Amino acid sequence: AIAKDALMTQPVTLSTAGSIAVIEINNPPVNALSQAVRQGLLDAVVQADADAAVTAIVILGAGRSFPAGADIKEFGQPMQDPHLPDVIDRIESCSKPVVAALHGTALGGGFEIALGSHYRIAVPSARVGLPEIHLGLIPGAGGTQRLPRLCGAAMALDIMFKGTPISAQDALAAGLIDRLAEGDLRQAALIYAAELQTPRRSREATSGLADKAAFEAALTDAEETARSRMRGQMAPLKIVQCLRACITQPFADGRLFERDCFFECLASEQSKGMIHAFFAQRASAKVPEASRAEPRPLNRLGVVGGGTMGAGITVAALNSGLPVTMIERDHDSLARGRANVEQVYDRLIAKGRMSEAQKSDIMARYQGSTQFADLSEVDMVIEAVFERLDVKRAVFEQLDKVLKPDAVLASNTSYIDIDEISSVTNRRKHVLGLHFFSPANIMKLLEIVVPQSAADDVVATGFALAKILGKIPVRAGNSPGFIGNRILGKYGDCAAHMMEDGATPYEIDAAIVEFGYPMGLHAMYDLAGLDIGWDNRKAAQGKRNPAERYVEIADRICERGWFGQKTGRGFYLYPDGARIGAPDPEILALIEAERAKKSITARRFTAEEIMARYLAAMVNEACEVLREGVALKPSDIDVTFVHGYGFPRYRGGPMNYADSYGLARMLDDIRRYGQHDPIFWQASPLLVELVASGQTFNDLNKG
Fold first, then answer.
1. In terms of Cα–Cα distance, which of 154, 151, 79 is closest to 109?
2. Percentage of the chain exceeding pLDDT 70
3. Cα–Cα distance between 274 and 653 in angstroms, integer?
4. E strand or H helix at 52, and its extent?
5. How does pLDDT run across 147-203, given as a tens digit for each residue?
């Protein structure tokens, strides 16, 4: 018999329960598949398989989960033996039945271990999945070959393309799990293992391959999805190719093909960019204030304003389980605010994604009022009224009178100085900015704006709220436009200069989309509403340096009442309520007229030149944001633009892209552009310093 290892610090232990060998993986917190875990698992499987007293083997995870994937500490390091595919092949080759007992999240390599095991049992709360696509990778340990053999191409592609886990119940229905455990998982797995007589290998399964026509149809659809909705990404097309190998080649050949594709993805700039984005997102929540103070309690939220932003914030809070009190100025406005909230749930009901009962349960947490006094017991209030300083200050004056002493007071604003807003209160240390992105119940990014007087625990509470709401937080200093919109203003001006100099808005947008953005800048302006930018430009008119170049094309468009999609035309035409715009000849004529006023002779811009200028303006201003301390580190800017502004995730963000482009090369570009416009194209001292010292933005992230 096999004696239980007394050293519980070992990442893999082997013991017996009667004739059943139990292999337990213990590598907190998520049992990541480090080299030590892989070696320990392989050794335990070999030992158990060789023991004549063992009739079956159970593999399970200690703590909170079955292995949840690769060890992120090994990312970027040379791979060490044993490789996971070889470990899984050895598991599948066992002469005795092997049962994978799943709880928590069995993801990536962890789920591939389960697929390589002969049988799978799971607790009802378990979730399984293959999320490698989020890192620009494909499953590399047999997942693309074993999964479709069990459930067919359509479901396998859905699991791998989305990269999101599925429930144990869905996995059971698809044949990916054999049994749900009642009660204790270990005991249920032992009982199940004792019933089994022979191995059953996924590599030999044929149920998912039976309907060749359906399989090929699913691959054709997936290819179209990869080329359209996942345009520019390598991994989705590699997944399709691997599944095609699954149906056209023997398992061993298909797995070798998968491995080649995996290493091709791993060596790509796309994967490096997405891995950078992954780590940047993890790092964005680590801020000095949160390390110095605990967050305040967050049991009930107040929202002032029931418009688009206020309703979206309310939905996000209700969905997270927080009770919300919404305040509006009168009963009609309050009714519209509630309708805006309910509309979100009614759409879900219409799509069959929510029941009336579920909506009722959520709305039971909602309360509406026209009285600020009804916010007296909330822990935080988020003001989400019109984007005007006087309006926001008036709201803050009212809130200052009714909130309990330790309540946090936040303003949802995209540009306005938080200190200016909070100056009317007697609780400035309790105030911070929360810049949600629209629609607030869907967009993940949340800029947490820290004014000078904010207490550490108030900032920590802002980050705690982000976690509750499932948002990706980025700390921003209190500078006009904060991180994202300040930089947007700069590259938006660059685009306007190119448009006035000869590039059409449609050529600029086409270059941006080709680079990997989901939509172009001018299409985004139309979607947001051109009047928003117009109001900001008018408000800043007296502060503008008269020597700076100012392009009036957008102003001329707004003067005609063309504000984008909501008015049926902006930079583009939107006939009959169309969501995708068409080029407008009148806009081109308007641009020509503006050029003529300034005696500008139009010239051609290539797509490459458009993007070189666009990104140089973006990165140069980002350097100033860093130099002034508005952003703590370059990776925070990457997170902001990937999750808030559509920057292609597979490029890692603008700062990561600049490192790969070459900072010296980008500085040369900026200096060349500056020969024609020395005011706009002033190289940031930070960029100059980095080039002189041979450093990169990633060096600053490490520092």
1. 79
2. 99
3. 9
4. none
5. 999 999 999 999 999 999 999 999 999 999 999 998 999 999 999 999 999 999 999
Q: Is 307 exposed, middle or buried (0-12, 13-18, 19+ CB in 10 A)?
A: middle
Backbone angles phi, psi at 22, to 5 degrees: -115, 115
Give Cα separations from 387 to 32, 181, 259, 392, 535 (angstroms). Answer: 46, 54, 53, 7, 10
Helices (H), 123-233: 143-151, 153-162, 168-173, 185-195, 212-228
Count the helices and strands in the chain (H runs, E runs).
30, 19
**What does 338-360 look like in DSSP terms, one character per residue?**
HHHHHHHHHHHHHTTSS-HHHHH
Report how far residue 406's alpha carbon sits from residue 297's, in angstroms, rounded to the nearest whole number. Answer: 10
Query: What's the per-residue H, E or C state across 56-98?
Result: EEEEEECCCCCCCCECHHHCCCCCCCCCHHHHHHHHHCCCCCE
Q: Looking at this protein, which amino acid is placed at residue 335?
A: A
Contact 66, 54 (CB under 8 A): no
Does residue 553 have a pLDDT over 90? yes
List, for residues 86-121, the tens digit of each pLDDT value. 999 999 999 999 999 999 999 999 999 999 999 999
> How far from the centroid of its chain's Cα atoms is residue 503's Cα?
32
d(CA 11, CA 39): 10
CA distances from 153 to 164, 595, 689 (A): 17, 55, 52
Amino acid (1-letter code) at residue 656: N
| Alpha-carbon 675 to chain mean position | 39
Number of other CB atoms surrounding residue 484 within 10 Å: 23
CB 368 within 8 A of CB 325: yes
**What are the beta bridge partners of residue 25?**
12, 61
Residues 6 or more apart whose Cβ sits within 8 Å of residue 535: 387
The model's pTM: 0.92
Residue 118: both structure tokens together: 């002969």
Q: Which residues pair with 102 in a beta bridge?
A: 122
Q: What is the DSSP letter of 569?
A: B
- The DSSP code sequence of 482-519 is TTHHHHHHHHHHHHHHHHHHT--HHHHHHHHHHHT-SS
The 10s digit of each residue's pLDDT in 62-77 is: 999 999 998 888 887 8
Distance in Å from the first CA to the final CA of the chain: 52
**Distance between CA atoms of 136 and 652, rounded to whole angstroms?**
11
Catalytic residue annotation: 112, 132
Task: Give the Cα separation of 277 and 550 in Å (integer).
Answer: 35
**Strand 366-369 and strand 119-122: pairing?**
unpaired
Q: What pLDDT sits at residue 33?
A: 96
> By C-alpha distance, which of 600, 628, 530 is closest to 571?
530
E strand or H helix at 572? strand 572-573
Between CA 111 and CA 174 the distance in angstroms is: 15
Alpha-helix runs per DSSP H in 29-142: 35-50, 84-92, 109-116
Q: How far is CA 478 from CA 86, 243, 466, 482, in A?
A: 53, 50, 18, 6
